[in-house]
Amino acid sequence: MTAGEIIGEGVYLVGGPNISHAEDATSFVVQMGSELAMIDCGAGRSAGRIEENIVSLGLDPQKLSTLVLTHCHIDHVGGAAVFRARYGCRVIAHELDAPALEAGDPVRTAASWYGVRLLPLTIDHLLRGEEEILAIGGDELHCIHTPGHTPGSICLYLDRGGKRVLFGQDIHGPFLPAFGSDIAAWRRSMEKLLTLDADILCEGHFGIFTGKEQAERYIRRYLAMTVEDL
Prior knowledge:
It is a single chain. The chain is an alpha/beta fold. The chain has a single domain, classed as Ribonuclease Z/Hydroxyacylglutathione hydrolase-like (Metallo-beta-lactamase, Chain A, 4-Layer Sandwich). Helices cover 24% and strands 29% of the residues. The chain has 7 helices and 13 strands. A 7-stranded mixed sheet has the order 1-2-3-4-5-6-7. Strands 8-9-10-11-12-13 form a 6-stranded mixed sheet. β4, α1 and β5 form a beta-alpha-beta unit. α6 packs antiparallel against α7.
């Protein structure tokens, strides 16, 4: 198992398979002025390992002020209560996925898939509408509503060192009625992401895609699939 990785200027991979735990989706920490923002936080059992990875990168987890959840599935949100309790960070999610989190819904959060229980999680700030810009530490993190995988799925981006970094967690699906998935909405969401012209794509399960061509190719590969293949 490897430690955290530097993805770009002030952007770090701190969790995921081979980084924290096999059941974790990828999680990232972003330097935002004097503060840190985390994007997703693993399934929960590896919170300590994620903290170690943050420290190994020379970062102070005490500066973690904001945790943004890209959607309600447990492999992305399971550690949220731990990080809030330890560091007092505010937890942010889209209003359409918040009810599943606040109820600890075992189906909508996919907790039942993992054979664990997600305790009800209070969301401190609800994202509403198509886009919101979070002001953190004098910097800006853009949140884009990208429904499809779940109703309240979001992607995030920021510009650093002349490059646009896109956090596109689980843009590949899967798409299931139990998740409230909507493939037509997902296709519109992917077209929206393509207009961002990202230089780096950070995906939830399949790694980091560096370069505009690679990032675009990844998205278009899924768009080209039939409903049956998705």
